[in-house]
Amino acid sequence: MDLLQGMRVFARVVDCDGFTAAAQTLDLSAAQVSRLISDLETQLQARLLHRTTRRLRLTEAGERFLLRCRQILEQTDEAIAEARGAHLTPSGRLRVHSMHALGVLLTPLIASYNQRFPDVVFELSLSQRNPDPLEEGHDVVIAVGETLPDSQLVAQPIGRLYSVLCAAPGYLAERGVPQHPAELDQHRCLRMVEPLYEEAWLFHDAHGEHCVQPGQTFLTNVAESMVKAAEAGMGVCLLPFYTASGPLAAGSLQRVLPDYRLRERAIHAIYPSRHYLDAKVRTWIDFLRDELPALFAEHEQVLADPRHWAQ
């Protein structure tokens, strides 16, 4: 039998002080209620009620069981209400993973989202890889790349990522400003070593594709470290556009070859496929799709300003 149903019927019989009255509130017959109580006693191998023609009386075992029943039923009702409301009201812990630099960029958006939905607790983890949400327990993974996950996951596109070429003004004053990707062979090219960056730099313009092979002068897998190396005059580097905008605006770096575009990559919000999507996941993804373009546009304005280009 359904033990939880039996517990509910047992508690209602006690509250109504009889099978008939309980049956009326449960939309059951008195015979069905009596059979459910008998089945419950059989399953528990204990008598819960003393039955007479006039009234019911709890046994000692019934009194103890009733106390536990009420606790369990209360907790169960709370859990059901919470689960049913999870797709309506954002609350609870939201576990989000992102690539390091992109996650740092998203932090102000997290603060804005949290002002709108204060009952959501963010747990943001950052690394230089795209983990599997199912294996590692993330609610949402902000992933970069064109390869979409398997059918157990949903991938919502939320933006595009591209890189720009930068160098310190002092370095460019000393070594000269390249006017074509082929001239980068005469420069110290610093290399990002992480999945988003291939060994070769592929530049595109109206005349086709131009391939540059960076050297081994400096290698790192963290964009912020690459910024420091470039600011120190170590050479020319590629940076994600949102990482480059700050030092470009500050004048510590200048954009090189602004007429050439490197390959873009898609940014996806990836989450496990569910029939009933949790409200905190749904509202966070909707928030990203609404707010991220404006945030990207602020950075792209800096990149498009010729004042920050190397002349």
Automatic annotation (TrEMBL):
Database matches in CDD domains: PBP2_CrgA_like (cd08422)
Highest rank taxon of the organism: Bacteria
Transmembrane domains' residue ranges: none
Gene3D superfamilies in the cross-refs: 3.40.190.290, Winged helix-like DNA-binding domain superfamily/Winged helix DNA-binding domain
Methyltransferase recorded as keyword: no
Protein family: Belongs to the LysR transcriptional regulatory family.
This protein's name: LysR family transcriptional regulator
Organism: Zestomonas insulae
